[in-house]
Design goal:
Helix content: 10-25%
Strand content: 25-35%
Number of helices: 2
Strand order of the largest sheet: 3-4-5
Distance between the termini: 53 Å
Largest sheet: 3 strands, antiparallel
Length: about 110
């Protein structure tokens, strides 16, 4: 009997349905589904939103390296370059930021 934890889990979350609207309780709570981005200092708030669905990180070369994806209001998934489903997730949810190379807004 092998009691080792699996190294890779083959889990795919598919969603064909539109996002469910927030409940009345969530609507009334200003902290519900809030994403806050800060600078180095925890009080240096750069941005706040309740609408974030995907957060993307790029490495020093500008290559996409990780994404944090909101699956629903209580569940986020982390996808990193090198994961088995990386190409699929990039195609499905990643934003192409190359417009910044053409002088677009950051």
């Amino acid at each position: 009997m092998n009691k080792k934890m699996p190294i890779v889990r083959d889990v795919v979350v598919k969603s064909n349905a539109e996002d469910k609207p927030m409940t009345e309780a969530e609507e009334d709570n200003p902290l519900s589904n809030l994403m806050t981005i800060t600078g180095f200092d925890k009080d240096d708030v750069i941005f706040r939103t309740r609408s974030a669905k995907v957060l993307q990180w790029r490495d020093a070369d500008g290559e996409l390296m990780a994404m944090l994806i909101r699956i629903n209001s209580k569940l986020w998934g982390l996808c990193m370059r090198g994961d088995d489903d990386w190409d699929q997730m990039v195609a499905q949810v990643a934003h192409d930021d190359t417009d910044l190379l053409k002088g677009g807004k950051e």
